Amino acid sequence: MVKMDKSIIPKISVPLSELTRNYEHIPIGDMEAWCNRPIEQRDDKNKFDKIARPLNSFMLYRKAYRDRCKVWAMSSDNRIVSGIIGQSWALEPFAIRKLYIDYAEIERVNHAIAHPDYEFQPQPRRSKREESQTGRKRKAAAVKDEDDDEPEFLKERRLS
Is the distance from CB of 71 to CB of 26 less than 8 angstroms? Predict the structure, then answer.
């Protein structure tokens, strides 16, 4: 993965709530309605068909201000938008951060009601070596031929 040059992310000195105050044509996401959506509307499955974690306060803030930030930054590059929103979150007054902290608590409670058996199961971190393996090597390493009587050290040489 190529690292992004952080110098292309504009530095802000005031939060998005102030920077985008005149952007009435772009609504701030209604996180209260989103957190209180009915259980029937909670399709919380992620791309791996697992129940996603409830959003924390920052993620709710990011979701609320994403559209305004894209217009303000004149960029739809997610890396730039995330960088600006991250700076903005740190600059927001406590009253606004507290609002999203409260929304996150509502989201946690409603998520627990909708998914009573949900339990967060973090995946173990992969080593740098595993991350750098190509898909071909990963697939080859995953395939185990039980009938193969090739010695283990030869298998390792072939896969490396």
Answer: yes
pLDDT digits (tens, 9 = 90+) for 35-65: 999 988 877 777 777 888 999 999 999 999 9
Structure tokens at 39: 């259980």
Distant-in-sequence, close-in-space partners of 79: CB < 8 Å, separation ≥ 6: 4, 9
Task: Please tell me the distance from the alpha carbon of residue 133 to that of residue 129, in angstroms, as a whole number.
Answer: 6
Cα 154 versus chain centre, distance: 41
Q: What is the pTM of this model?
A: 0.72
pLDDT digits (tens, 9 = 90+) for 113-155: 988 888 888 888 877 676 666 555 555 555 554 445 666 666 6
Tell me the DSSP string of 14-46: S-HHHHTTT-TTSPPP-HHHHHT--GGG---B-
